[in-house]
Design goal:
Oligomer: single chain
Helix content: 25-40%
Number of helices: 3
Radius of gyration: 12 Å
Order of helices and strands: EEHEEEHH
Strand order of the largest sheet: 1-2-3-4-5
Number of domains: 1
Length: about 90
């Protein structure tokens, strides 16, 4: 698991070899004891987050969609993912 970003106690990560499970570009968001897999397109694939945090994650993902796809493509190729700016 590689941490891409952290904001408002939410950690955004991407797994290097997780694509077989969900079959689409996605990332993971963790808040407190909640964990969710979220497609870069915004689809909630698995897990849960409180609605307020989920809305923050969706907003962040819209702003950084191109960077998320770039990170996903790098992850699939085992290249460095880099960091993505948080929400402020």
């Amino acid at each position: 698991m590689y941490e891409l970003c952290r904001f408002f106690d939410i950690t955004i990560s991407m797994f290097f070899r997780d694509d077989e499970k969900h079959h689409k570009p996605h990332f993971h968001a963790v808040y407190a004891n909640c964990d969710a897999a979220i497609g870069i397109d915004g689809e909630l694939l698995e897990g849960k987050l409180p609605l307020k945090q989920l809305k923050l994650v969706w907003a962040w993902a819209v702003i950084h969609e191109d960077e998320l796809y770039e990170a996903w493509n790098n992850a699939v190729r085992n290249l460095p993912l880099g960091k993505i700016e948080p929400l402020n």
